[in-house]
Write a structure and sequence with these properties.
Elements (H helix, E strand, L loop, with lengths): L12 H12 L3 E4 L2 E4 L19 E3 L2 E2 H17 L7 E7 L5 E3 L2 E2 L6 H7 L7 E5 L10 E6 L4 H7 L4 H9 L3 E4 L3 H7 L6 E4 L8 H17 L3 E3 L2 H8 L4 H24 L6 H14 L4 E2 L4 E4 L20 E6 L1 E3 L2 E2 L2 E6 L6 H19 L7 H18 L9 H11 L29 E4 L2 E4 L13 E4 L2 E6 L2 E4 L8 H9 L1
Helix pairs in contact: 6-7, 9-10, 9-14, 11-12, 12-13
This protein binds glycine (GLY) and manganese (II) ion (2 copies).
Glycine binds next to loops.
């Protein structure tokens, strides 16, 4: 097998042009300097999905130029790192494989997020290599994709594949090969002196491609004294700040799920099954334009709300109980993550209103803290103190406790953090510490809760068996916090009034 790409574009614009012209009559759309293959690829294109994509977009809302700038920014960050002065750099990012629930029955496919962020390519079993170009300074680099081979037998079952040509033209990388060529190409880097390899060796996202990287590059590199460095911190530091285009997608994701919540509140009634509320929020989110829910939602009636990761969602909710729903959707690759708690019969009891009011007031205070320079950890401690004082006011905690005690004891009533970064993943950019300062363009969740199990006999009986969380999605801006899920009702009178209808 020869791994030769006849369409390479690196420093060879003149080679690309004649080839594109040669194909342009039948095989490609050539418009506004964008080349789109005139056939189905392994993902939507402006040729096959005009309702989704503009001519310059790789995924809805994100242009080819933005993907290319992301790769360039990553290579610039590598150049600024303590290893930046090395002569050669090679960064390897693997795509995810398919996962199967049972024989030939796949789970819905989800691409590895870092890979998707850097190129937008959506087919399984792919890999991206970004490498410095000998004699040129970073961030100049070459981008190469490795993608599944076109295969008429497999395409009959699984649908069209892009193949190297389709991937290279549509994604706009410099070169593309089939994944069979991956081991051979990896091997080439061993010959280069003073090379730093950037690869997430401890978090392999694809078993066999990882084996290729490990055998052909990582192990021999180490024995030759080359540096191997993890990459994810650098990508996540970039991903945590959202571009204006990403913010638009996240606003829409927040708006879709907020409307879905509103419809689900209206649909609630005593005796309704949690499964039906799940179905309703899923239905409304998809109808609103989301591809799917971002995670299995929590739909927990009554005391089940005190099980933080309750996803069985299979019980009837009795009159007089509250329902806690934690649901988000993915809109063109961007997640929302919202929680609301409401009385299933549409009317808060006095005890429910007291506890709910306490969580709501702490949640609003926490949102006000979400400004540049603050940190998620600082807001967390602010939340614990606020919850502690509220619990004292309700007579649940003794008024004698000081601030240090309150901080500790509040964790018994709210065992989780105040929030996390949000973006392409629900728990986004996990390599970015919550002690980092918030910056404009970051999106976070703010989600305080109070959970009082039915068996908690140290608490007045009227509050037992109630679990409340209120979660919104917050964009940090120079004008202060912007609540992306603001259309989702959370005031007691608003919830009661929409549920009356
Ligand atoms: N829905 C997951 C979370 O709120 O973190
Ligand atoms: Mn959530
Ligand atoms: Mn969350």
């Amino acid at each position: 097998m020869q791994c030769i790409n006849t369409l390479s574009t690196v420093g060879m614009k003149s080679r690309l042009m004649p080839i594109t012209r040669a194909f342009s009559v039948t095989a490609f759309m050539w418009k506004e300097k964008v080349l789109i293959p005139k056939r189905y690829l392994g993902q939507p294109t402006p040729f096959t999905h005009q309702h989704l994509l503009k001519m310059d977009e790789i995924t809805p809302g994100i242009s080819r130029g933005q993907y290319s700038a992301r790769r360039r920014d990553l290579m610039a960050a590598i150049g600024r790192s303590i290893y930046g002065s090395a002569k050669n750099h090679v960064a390897i990012i693997l795509g995810a494989g398919k996962k199967y629930m049972t024989d030939e029955i796949p789970y819905p496919y989800r691409q590895n997020t870092d890979f998707l962020y850097l190129c937008g390519f959506q087919e399984p079993d792919s890999a991206l290599i970004l490498e410095s170009i000998p004699g040129r300074e970073l961030p100049d680099h070459k981008a190469t994709l490795f993608v599944p081979q076109r295969d008429s037998d497999r395409e009959l079952w699984d649908g069209p594949r892009s193949g190297p040509e389709g991937a290279m033209q549509f994604i706009g990388v410099d070169e593309a090969f089939t994944t069979d060529c991956f081991p051979e190409k990896l091997h080439r880097y061993l010959a280069r002196e003073n090379t730093v390899v950037w690869y997430d060796v401890f978090r392999p996202v694809h078993d066999s491609l990882h084996q290729d990287v490990s055998t052909n590059l990582i192990q021999p590199s180490r024995s030759r004294g080359h540096t191997v460095n993890i990459l994810q911190q650098t990508i996540h530091a970039q991903r945590v700040i959202k571009s204006p285009e990403e913010i638009n997608l996240m606003r829409k994701s927040g708006s879709i799920i907020s409307k879905a919540f509103k419809e689900t509140m209206k649909f609630s009634k005593p005796g309704v099954n949690e499964a039906h509320l799940y179905a309703k929020v899923d239905f409304e989110a998809r109808l609103g334009g989301a591809e799917f829910l971002a995670y299995p939602p929590v739909v927990a009636g009554g005391n089940r709300a005190n099980t933080l990761h309750y996803i069985s969602n299979n019980q009837a909710i009795d009159d007089g109980e509250m329902v806690l729903m934690d649901a988000g959707c993915e809109y063109h690759g961007y997640a929302s993550d919202v929680t609301r708690t409401w009385p299933v019969n549409g009317k808060f009891s006095e005890a429910q209103a007291e506890l709910y009011g306490a969580v709501l007031s702490v949640q609003k205070d926490c949102i006000e803290q979400c400004t540049a320079g603050s940190t998620l950890d600082q807001v967390y401690h602010f939340m614990l103190l606020g919850l502690g004082r509220s619990l004292q006011n309700l007579g649940i905690l003794p008024s004698s406790l000081n601030d240090v005690d309150l901080n500790r004891v509040s964790k018994m009533f709210c065992p989780h953090h105040v929030g996390h970064y949000l973006g392409m993943d629900t728990h986004d950019t996990v390599r970015v510490s919550r002690s980092n300062q918030l910056q404009h363009g970051m999106v976070i969740t703010i989600e305080p809760g109070i959970y009082i199990p039915a068996a908690e006999d140290s608490v007045p009986s009227k509050y037992r068996g109630i679990g409340i969380r209120i979660e919104d999605n917050i964009l940090i801006t120079d004008k202060g916090p912007e609540v992306l899920s603001q259309e989702c009702p959370k005031e007691i009178d608003v919830i009661e009034s929409i549920m009356k209808r």
